[in-house]
């Protein structure tokens, strides 16, 4: 029997939760479905043999890809690109699914998006908060499914030697290793969206109060336009002599592997969806502390969003506790069965 052809659209080459979700999803389903990809990452990150919506020379091939596939699955975070793919999927009369990994648009953008979302077979939302933002007419089409799919640990890349050496040094000093990450640095209402400025604030308090911690903050992608912002944080660390309390690593790494080495995982975001980082930490039975900006999974410790003092106090509190064992509620087989059912139903 021929496999159904499914076109996955999203930031496939970016380092972040959505790209990890797409890769794990297709990995567990590739025995039953045939996958191709349209990338919406910056074109320089995309391999030459993969389509990218931002490359002019790929436009004709993208339209051909939309025409030839049996099912389209749109993960686009950019509202304009999402609309582009919805419009052409509808014009070509192709069944399509839209996964909303976040939903921060309002006004005209939201109104237009919601009108076109009515054409989809299914809307997958990764949290109750996102579903709550949709109009009633779309809620009936929306299904809540967390973005998390368990990692296959042996398939994860080993950490670079520089990070392994940093971890070794931290542990030799008997410091508590705290990890956090961002797929890229983002200014959000004059603060850093993923909480890097908060982590530096915590490092200052840790130095002042002699709290024996070291934060490793991973930045998955450092683009040219982000470098000035990045160096402003590097300078702040240097000016305050915080190098023994926080390290910023602008490198694409397996955050799962870093979580394995960590004593505490942070998710100090100012806005969020269903954070993959949190579910991975819980899956690996690590203590995880996150902002209360959205509802978090059971087992997550919370602090008041954006409050550096509260974050510091909660780090003190949580690092004094043993990590609890978190029950594995679903296996890879369960996720495979769920998505196979979704794809088959939407393709009929």
Automatic annotation (TrEMBL):
Annotated Glycosyltransferase subfamily 4-like N-terminal domain residues: 36-141
InterPro entries in the record: Glyco_trans_4-like_N
GO molecular function terms noted in the UniProt entry: glycosyltransferase activity
Recorded superkingdom: Bacteria
SUPFAM superfamilies per the UniProt record, alphabetical: UDP-Glycosyltransferase/glycogen phosphorylase
PANTHER family: GLYCOSYLTRANSFERASE, PHOSPHATIDYLINOSITOL GLYCAN-CLASS A
Protein name listed in UniProt: Glycosyltransferase subfamily 4-like N-terminal domain-containing protein
Native species: Brumimicrobium glaciale
Organismal lineage: Bacteria, Pseudomonadati, Bacteroidota, Flavobacteriia, Flavobacteriales
């Amino acid at each position: 029997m021929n496999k159904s052809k499914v076109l996955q659209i999203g930031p496939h080459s970016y380092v972040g939760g959505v790209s990890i979700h797409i890769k794990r999803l297709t990995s567990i389903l590739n025995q039953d479905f045939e996958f191709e990809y349209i990338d919406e990452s910056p074109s320089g990150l995309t391999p030459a043999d993969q389509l990218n919506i931002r490359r002019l020379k790929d436009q004709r091939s993208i339209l051909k890809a939309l025409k030839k596939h049996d099912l389209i699955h749109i993960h686009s975070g950019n509202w304009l690109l999402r609309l582009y793919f919805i419009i052409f999927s509808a014009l070509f009369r192709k069944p399509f699914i839209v996964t909303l990994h976040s939903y921060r648009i309002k006004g005209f953008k939201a109104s237009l998006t919601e009108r076109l979302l009515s054409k989809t077979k299914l809307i997958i939302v990764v949290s109750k908060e996102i579903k709550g933002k949709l109009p009633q007419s779309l809620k009936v089409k929306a299904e809540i499914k967390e973005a998390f799919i368990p990692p296959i640990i042996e398939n994860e890349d080993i950490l670079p030697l520089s990070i392994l050496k940093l971890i070794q040094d931290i542990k030799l000093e008997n410091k508590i290793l705290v990890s956090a990450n961002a797929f890229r640095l983002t200014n959000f209402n004059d603060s850093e969206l993923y909480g890097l400025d908060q982590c530096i604030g915590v490092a200052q308090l840790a130095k002042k109060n002699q709290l024996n911690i070291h934060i490793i903050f991973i930045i998955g992608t450092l683009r040219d336009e982000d470098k000035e912002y990045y160096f402003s944080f590097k300078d702040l660390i240097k000016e305050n002599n915080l190098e023994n309390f926080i390290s910023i690593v602008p490198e694409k790494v397996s955050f799962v592997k870093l979580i394995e080495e960590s004593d505490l995982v942070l998710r100090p975001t100012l806005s969020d969806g269903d954070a993959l980082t949190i579910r991975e930490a819980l899956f690996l039975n690590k203590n995880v502390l996150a902002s209360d900006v959205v509802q978090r999974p059971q087992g997550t410790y919370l602090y008041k969003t954006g409050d550096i003092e509260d974050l510091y106090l909660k780090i003190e509190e949580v690092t004094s506790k043993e990590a609890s064992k978190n029950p594995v509620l679903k296996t890879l087989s369960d996720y495979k069965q769920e998505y196979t059912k979704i794809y088959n139903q939407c393709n009929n």
